[in-house]
Amino acid sequence: MNRAAHLYRLQQLDQEEESLRRRLREVAAALGETPALREARQAAARAADEAHRWAVRQRDLELAVRGLRDEIASAERTLYNGSIRNPKALDDLQKKVLSLKKLQEKREEELLEAMIAREEAEDAQKQAQAHLAEVESAWRRDQAALEAEKGQLEGRLTEVGRARAALLSAIPREDLELYRNLRRTKGGLAVAVMRSGACTACGMEVPSGRLERARETDLFFCGNCERILIPEEAIP
Are residues 191 and 15 in contact, defined by beta-carbon separation less than 8 angstroms? Predict the structure, then answer.
């Protein structure tokens, strides 16, 4: 493997390492609770609170209606058992019974509304819980896949690191410095493939005379973009 081939291989390993690390960062960011999961859990909690609120409202109204019925029954017994003979007292008691019955009617209407609202709230709660279960199931599958991918990426990163370390020992220091400078100044691409007599990085054709001279050296450069060139057929 000549000098250009060594540097081209190093570039491949460096690019793969960068890609692996970039994907690892994405995987790390995706691990953990997602906004969709948090929203589904919050929606389920809100639905449960609403169902509980209406259940409490229904129970309170049932107690109120039961209390009014008992109070009306007691007042009517007093009204008709002859224990009260004063006409004004009887009139006041009759008015009280009438008022209690009106209040009872109002509370019964409110109770019916509360019962309907509770049923609707409980249906909404069931739907929210079902949606949460679906989101949690999908989230667990995704998390398992991400954890598996993370392990694969880390394993491949280790392999790339070993291959890179072994390759570096075969590259002269001056070549390595040249390669690093070009990668820094050429957008990460220090070595370009020459295909059909042209640089694939900038598209400039390499003059035939320059090609002849290139055969006499391990490193030659594009006359336009100044990257190291490696003929396609020389790629190992």
Answer: no
